[in-house]
């Protein structure tokens, strides 16, 4: 059982939306089920839709039925959880809306009771919602605000959002969520590197020749087309999730696990990224968009067919980054993310250098460490071994494969479970600081600027992106993981 928290209030703006139904409510249910969400805690959903508590609970029940396995949904526990869920109909972005019902929720709440305002809405509303919360007297010292990613659309809008939210909440009260940081295996990266000298001693450009970070999805844009078409893979995945994971791979050992110490080291990585100039973009960044193809043997439409109109939005990005520091020199970090790729897989692949001299005629493959973030979380170390034949010394790659789920024999909590509870605890180590968000936007901005011209390269749904992604690695004499031996 997880450590129970003191009773708290969790207010979710955007409560009728996809994120709340698919991720936030299931995460809160699990925390309740594990005994972490105590009796007396409240979840207050809010959105413009005219619903009452009962109607919202019906939606929540449906969502939990859809996103949690029946075996994990005990009817009595479900009923108890839903009793803790309430709804306030409100246009949170409007100053002249009727805030009385929301204020009534907090009328008797003691000042020290933690209240979290989770903004699961479009980022353009963040500033207005925060101003209104403040004007209505709801921002107490024990209040926190959680901002969903992406924070803004570009560097300029990110700065504006951070400025406006910062007028009403102190930086220590602001939790910029990136759910990749809540994934157990991403957190385990810190343990892998800094609790195991066997890896950390080899964690530099002397031993490592390249790093690949991939987040591949099989899904298309589906019901999120309206959001996605204004975003694209660079803003949706690379600017936040993949750069954050890269920071944890590349950062120096922090002085401690305290939030400030970890943020300082991540920020140094973002500042050390070799800038991409507009002239570089064509060489080091590939943007693609899926065309019709096949997934699991079934035909699927292309992106523009799903959308119903032409679009230059990218559904695939592959890029080559460098962290210009003493540790990394010019080691390439290849980052890649896309929709309608052959497998759902998020992984980090560390490829080590070959021995300086080989006494074996057929030493073909370098050592490789694969950190599987999902699915089947674990690590796999590929080493060269002697083929057990009596015919001399033939070498073959063999894997040391550790599945975390098998090793620990327990369910892997969803990233949101950990992160939501961290916001209540006030622990911001797994969140992004303003400076990190803006440094990440600063780095991707030249790519966004260059992409105002030209179009993405098409790739067939069910393939690993445009041929140019492979060609980019060919030019470096390297291969993507799926093409390695
Ligand atoms: N869905 C996902 O998987 C992920 C989403 N995110 C981010 O989370 C945020 C929400 O995404 P998602 O749930 O997909 O979006 P949806 O479009 O599904 O939901 C948006 C929600 O905002 C509400 N809303 C709109 N305007 C207002 C307003 N003025 N006041 C109060 N509520 C309002 C809508 O309800 P109503 O119309 O009733 O007001 C709805 O509940 C976005 O920033 C997105 O980028 C981040 C990671 C993953
Ligand atoms: O933030 C987002 O992440 C999901 C992918 O998350 P994962 O945990 O399933 O890897 C992505 O589908 C979505 O477009 C994006 O907004």
UniProtKB/TrEMBL annotation:
NADP(+) binds at residues 48, 149. Substrate binds at residues 179, 183, 217, 236, 339, 344. Residues 11-188 form the Glucose-6-phosphate dehydrogenase NAD-binding domain. Keywords: Carbohydrate metabolism, Glucose metabolism, NADP, Oxidoreductase. It catalyses: D-glucose 6-phosphate + NADP(+) = 6-phospho-D-glucono-1,5-lactone + NADPH + H(+). Belongs to the glucose-6-phosphate dehydrogenase family. GO terms for cellular component: cytosol. The active site is at 241 (proton acceptor). SUPFAM superfamilies: Glyceraldehyde-3-phosphate dehydrogenase-like, C-terminal domain, NAD(P)-binding Rossmann-fold domains. This is Glucose-6-phosphate 1-dehydrogenase. InterPro entries: G6P_DH, G6P_DH_AS, G6P_DH_C, G6P_DH_NAD-bd, NAD(P)-bd_dom_sf. Pfam families: G6PD_C (PF02781), G6PD_N (PF00479). GO terms for biological process: glucose metabolic process; pentose-phosphate shunt, oxidative branch. Pathway: Carbohydrate degradation; pentose phosphate pathway; D-ribulose 5-phosphate from D-glucose 6-phosphate (oxidative stage): step 1/3. Catalyzes the oxidation of glucose 6-phosphate to 6-phosphogluconolactone. Its EC number is 1.1.1.49. Residues 191-481 form the Glucose-6-phosphate dehydrogenase C-terminal domain. GO terms for molecular function: glucose-6-phosphate dehydrogenase activity; NADP binding.
